[in-house]
Amino acid sequence: MAAPVLHIGNKNYSSWSLRPWLALKWGGIPFEEHIIPLGGEGYGMSQIKEVRAVSPSGRVPALKVGDTTIYESLAICEWAAEQTPSLWPADALVRAEARAVASEMHAGFAAVRRDMSMNIRRRLERAPEWPDDTRADLDRLYALWGGLMARFGGPFLFGARSIADAMFAPVATRLRTYAVDAPDAAQAYSAAIFADAAFQEWERAAEAEAWTIDQSEALYR
């Protein structure tokens, strides 16, 4: 069987693409990547023609494995963990907790996603004034990261890299982009993400991208 193909969006912007890309890299799973520039006709409506051609949901990422397309980030990560079980903690209860943490990121933190869109290239000099719901999201984020770092000793949330870290890696970039004055534990966790070789590979590619999502660039301030 040919190597799986991971269809992803622009590396500078596509936080959901980064998550399974890291899981596959960390799992040592060979794959090819196919980058589809986001923006233009159909953007924001899941109607970009090139994306619809490879993903039934009209969204990326999507992983093509043989004749099967896995078209959702956490599902791709779970498939990766079935190939490389070490992507989840070995202990059953800790593994369940790590899944809960990953799912919380997948379904929650809506205000952070709304107000702190991923833009790896961008750096603000000063953080904006956040609305109450964004501050509440940040408080929950700090409590979650800090508590797990204290319990498992770092440098990652459950000690070693896991899918939970793949899910939260884009959030670390957002804190950096928006000059957020985060607590020490959150800064230490973000530093561990930024020092990771796979993340650095993604970051270099993001910084080298020539295109921008023109009609949405104002959101990536």
Describe it.
There is one protein chain. Helix content is 49%, strand content 7%. It is α+β, with helices and mostly antiparallel strands and 221 residues long. The chain has two domains: 5-85, Glutaredoxin; 86-202, Glutathione S-transferase Yfyf (Class Pi), Chain A, domain 2, CATH 1.20.1050. A four-stranded mixed beta sheet has the order 2-1-3-4. Strand 3 and strand 4 (68-70) form a beta hairpin. Helix 1 (15-26) packs parallel to helix 3 (73-83), helix 1 (15-26) packs across helix 7 (163-177) and helix 4 crosses helix 7 (163-177). It is globular and about 45 Å long. Mean pLDDT is 92; it is low at 215-221.
- Which bin fits the share of residues in helices? 40-55%
- Helices, by number, come to 9
Q: What pattern of helices and strands is seen along the backbone?
A: EHEHEEHHHHHHH
The 3D shape can be described as: globular
Structural class: alpha+beta
The biggest beta sheet reads: 4 strands, mixed
Rg from Cα: 17 Å
**Which whole number gives the mean pLDDT?**
92
Alpha carbon gap, first and last residue:
43 Å
The total of beta strands comes to 4
Strand content: 5-15%
CATH topology of the largest domain: Glutathione S-transferase Yfyf (Class Pi), Chain A, domain 2
**Can you tell me the number of structural domains?**
2
Which architecture name of the largest domain does CATH use?
Answer: Up-down Bundle
User: CATH first level of the largest domain: which class?
Assistant: Mainly Alpha
